[in-house]
Amino acid sequence: MNRRNFLRGSGLAAAGCALGGKRARAQKTGRLTALSSGSFTFAFFTDVHIEPEMDAPQGTELAMEVINASDAEFAICGGDHVFDALKVHKDRILEQYELYAEAEKTLRMPVWHVLGNHDVAGLETGMSSHDVIFGKALFRQVFNTPTYYSFQHKGVNFIVLDSIMVKGRDWEPAIDITQAAWLERVLIATKGTPSIVISHVPLATSMASYGPGSNSKVYEPVLNASYIIPMLEYYDVIALLQGHTHISETVHRMGIHYVTGGAVCGNWWKGAQFGDREGVTFVTVDNGSVTTNYVPTGFLSTEG
Questions:
Q1: pLDDT bracket for residue 6 (50, 70, 90)
Q2: How far apart are CA 258 and CA 87, in angstroms?
Q3: What integer pLDDT is reported at residue 24 of this predicted model?
């Protein structure tokens, strides 16, 4: 069996047992509405892609100012903090991570971090795989975090996924079998609590429909999403936050809001991405319901 078929066909053996040996897509369509504690708002900002050029530090500063001016209680960065750690030399990688860390220091609230593909260090270079920053190591060091984890806020469970599967010197958008089993354990342990899941690469998106070039392979969603999504539907997931495609979008299905959060950098600091300017998404949770508001930062790019 080839590797892609493995991802599509065997990723959730444990989930199959928990769901009575079959997918539970139609068994549970309702969502919890009474167990979260009141109402709160948080900021979801993603795809910063900070770099020394393109006025990217100034554009990132604008995003931080927008967040600080809001009533957000915390923030989540949805990945791709830098542009780019995959293909450049070590000094450049460290410079970009330092730029991002300095920019984030201005935020007056806790910040949680999601791994993006461009945050992975040195895959497409000659960097040794034994280097202390190689792969996902630098991300873990800088943000003092694992690449997947969970936390709670006011009665809501937040689950951060690692959607970047590294194999040798390549990566693909997927949730590996170990992480999928962990995800199910978390959902079982917090059953009865509304959950919000965060993934850098989307699990559900209409991206391919938005115009010439939007169906590019670079926007491909998580390969084994068809095995992850039924699990989210079965348990108490009310929303899934996503990045990667640089568009602002909401797909609503089976009681779950799949919210793609736009991009702080817009079209990589070159203007709008399929009509969406540089911005930040604010998410309000109110007794199990989710509403969002995409706020442009007002950045004026050097190229439009």
A1: very low
A2: 30
A3: 34
Predicted local confidence at residue 130, as pLDDT: 96
Asked whether residue 59 is domain-assigned, the answer is yes
Give the CA distances from residue 118 to residues 12, 50, 281, in Å, rounded to whole numbers and listed in that order.
Answer: 27, 11, 21
Contact present, 233 and 255 (Cβ < 8 Å):
yes
Tell me the per-residue pLDDT of 182-221, one tens digit each, with 9 for 90 and over. 999 999 999 999 999 999 999 999 999 999 999 999 999 9
Cα 294 to Cα 292: distance, rounded to the nearest angstrom: 7
The answer as to whether 304 is a domain residue is: no
Contact 112, 160 (CB under 8 A): yes
Structural domain harbouring 150: 40-296
Number of folded domains in the chain?
1
Residues 284, 118: Cα–Cα separation, whole Å: 28
Output the domain CATH number for residue 110.
Answer: 3.60.21.10
Per-residue model confidence (pLDDT) at position 281: 98
pLDDT of the residue at 4? 41
Q: Return the amino acid letter for 265.
A: C
CA atoms within 13 A on the CB side of 167: 11
Residues linked to residue 256 through DSSP beta bridges, in sequence order: 253
pTM listed for this prediction:
0.89
Residue 66 phi, psi dihedral angles, 5° rounding: -60, -45
Q: Say if 256 falls within a structural domain.
A: yes
CB burial of 38-63 (b: ≥16 within 10 Å; e: otherwise) equals eebbbbbbbbbbbbeebbbbebbbbb
Assigned token pair, 262:
């736009």
282 three-state secondary structure: strand
Q: How far is CA 54 from CA 4, 92, 103, 154, 217, in A?
A: 37, 15, 15, 39, 25
Has residue 33 been placed in a domain? no
Angstrom distances, CA of residue 91 to CA of 49, 86, 97: 17, 13, 10
